[in-house]
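Dissemination and training. As part of the outreach component of the grant, students in the summer workshop were shown how a complex can be specified as a set of sequence lines and then modelled as a single object. The example used during the hands-on session is reproduced here so that future cohorts can follow it. Participants entered these lines:
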Amino acid sequence: MNVNAIQIDHLSCFYGERLAVNNLSVSIQSGSILGLIGSNGAGKTTTMKAIAGLIQPTDGTITVNGLTPKNDALDFRTHVAYLPDEPQLFPEMTVFDHLRFFASAYRQKFHKAKSLAFLEKWGLFEKRHAPASRLSRGMRQKLAFCCQLQRSPQLFILDEPFTGLDPHGIQQLKETLLENAKKGACIIISSHLLAVVEDLCSHLLMLETGNVSFFGSMEAMRLLNDHGHDNNQRLEDFFHTHPMNQNKLVDSVGVGS
Amino acid sequence: MNSALRKLINPSIFLLFYLRLRGRIRIAIELLTSKRNRLLVFTILAISLGWAIQLFANSAFRESSSRIVIQQAMIVLLTAYATWPILKSIWKRPIAESNFSEVEQSLICHGPFTPTDFIFWQLLKNSLSVTFKAATFAILVSSDVHFPFAAFLGMALCLLCLNLGRYAWERLLVALPASAYRRFQGMAITLVSLLVINVIPSAILFFREASQIAGGEFMMSTSTILMNSYSAIEVTAGAPLFYVVKPFVELITIESGGLHFAIKSLEAVLLVCASITTAWLVELQISRGVFRTNCDSESEVHEFKSLFSQLKSTSIPYLYGVGPIVWRQFRRIAREALPTTIASLPVALLAILPTQIGITDDLAFVFVFLILVLLSFLLMPAVLKFDFRSDYDHLSLFRQLAIPSIAITLGQLAVPVLVLSFVQTVTLLAVYSQLQISFSLIVASAILLFVANIFVFGFENFLYLISPFKFEESTFSMMLRTLMTFSSKILVILAVLITLIIWMSFAKTFSNQLPFASFSEIVICYSGILAVGVFMSLTMLYALHRQFDKLLFLRGC
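and obtained this result:
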């Protein structure tokens, strides 16, 4: 049975007087992959940070599997994995040490053989003794993701996760995310690679200057095209042609439907 | 018990400390494979050895001081150490990165950790530098105290207590909304101004009386300064810190062991526990969202209205590429105009002080000039970091600019040099209004100081570019860097002084062979110093721009 994994009600974030996110209310079911798209400065990262509990919203509530970032901070963080656009790693620590630390931080048993196999899978085995400072951008991205993946969180929030990855890495990441979604994890991805988002995501949230301009399933997006009958409209066309004032769709399409 | 401890503190905190330390040691060893780095490390080791020998010699061959003097000195110094971050926070609001680096913020602050874990992480981070400082201190005062171990323990606990206090204070200020911080700033500035208005006239009066008693030949003895500072701290706003520091000082200077030592140690440990509890409470309040930290604090950037907003509309002169760089740094300093002014005021006030203590005008001016030089060299570069040192994240960006590296170097140094020269010139003009001296002396001094400032900032940036880093409080590596920078500065001051003495004696000999001897001596002396200063500054600029080039080449960015 699908249940709402994430419930966001009237979320608003202001930076001083500047509006970043305005009155966002959505709910996402477990097993969904939500693509978050919008122009630069549309409020994608702020929304993601607020959902991850990294910033305190000015107004509204966020619940992930019944947990709130304010009242159940520790449990909340255990359930949520946030990967920022710039992967954050301890520069002096080796690839292998990172996996060891993350396992320990989330109070999980560390299996050396399993971790090595994990690194092998992600093409980091050769670099297992190299400090993070000597890894390429793509490798750092992979390592940051591996650190989060090994603890099997229920919600992944990934900000531009495909940046710096080679085609093989992108494919591998897509497969891994689909695999995790099948297992019941909820995934939120922000990306400007609209083709990837279209392939991967089951739902779409489009933001424009902090306001929701579309929220619904991919099928709903394909139905809503300029001619009203083209079911094969690509996300890219939709993004470029969609007028900002289609907020009505949020109500009509519904949540996670 | 082990399980209870694991429940209280996440074991990964200890693991992280160990893994990071191991990683740093490994990288440091790997660095030794390069010839250039080996040379650098050996130079650093030689300087450290020099300090260590000086330290041992100092403690072994000097006369032991009385207990009361040691106590007074310790209380004055430790109170100053504790007060400095509070004063600093008045003009410059601490940033989140001062206690947690960007990575730590992302992986620790936003990780599965409790406020208790944060405090233990801070304790672990501080442990190395605290141990090092306390051990150095124990060696330094070994001839003055009865139990060097008690001195080590007392100092270590005191530093832990004060560092945690500073941590709690800064976390609180970081978490406060912008409006609350501005209210704090206003209140603190009023308090400090009242204190200064109260203390300075008494200090001037005291110095004048003392100089009259001494028949004009005024010399301040260390014990007099100590005694008066001690009394000032005890009866003024420093009193709360005085009572925090005192138990540690009593442990440091303890005269009998056994039960007395146990009680004093317990007292010190309890104070550390109180500091831990305070920091923990602050963290707890932050984690509960009592302070609205995130959205509001970021808003400051957007709320800020520049004092020099008219600059936005004007076009920027190119000036061989120097213009845009200067303009950018100028915008940054304009944004921090108030904190920079507040930070520069003590330097100007301290420099003017000799004009009020009743010594001859010539001698007073010499003191003013020396104070300006010393403070400019030792203190001001830390305040005016509007150069490469504040651009760690943008070093690679500079390479992409179609501007020659020498222009970038000049542009980066221009603003701090000009600002410091402005502060010095204003101070000199204020001194001129107080003393009966020639105006040409003021002009000559201002020119000399300007040339010296280029060297000072060039040198500071040169050391920084050898191995750039992000500024971080209270870490062992940061402490070592500060120590090395300071040692290098002292060495440079010594070299400059020796050169000056040699040149002055040469000028005296040479001028004797010329007519108008006394005038010629001054002119020759000044011209020589200026020529050497210009040469050194130009050399430093060249070296700095070469270092900037090399750095980019080595990093391959």
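The interface with chain A takes residues 10-12, 15-16, 19-20, 22-24, 26-27, 102-103, 106-107, 110-114, 178, 287-289, 292-296, 298-303 of chain B (CB under 8 Å). Students were then asked to discuss how this feature might be tested experimentally.
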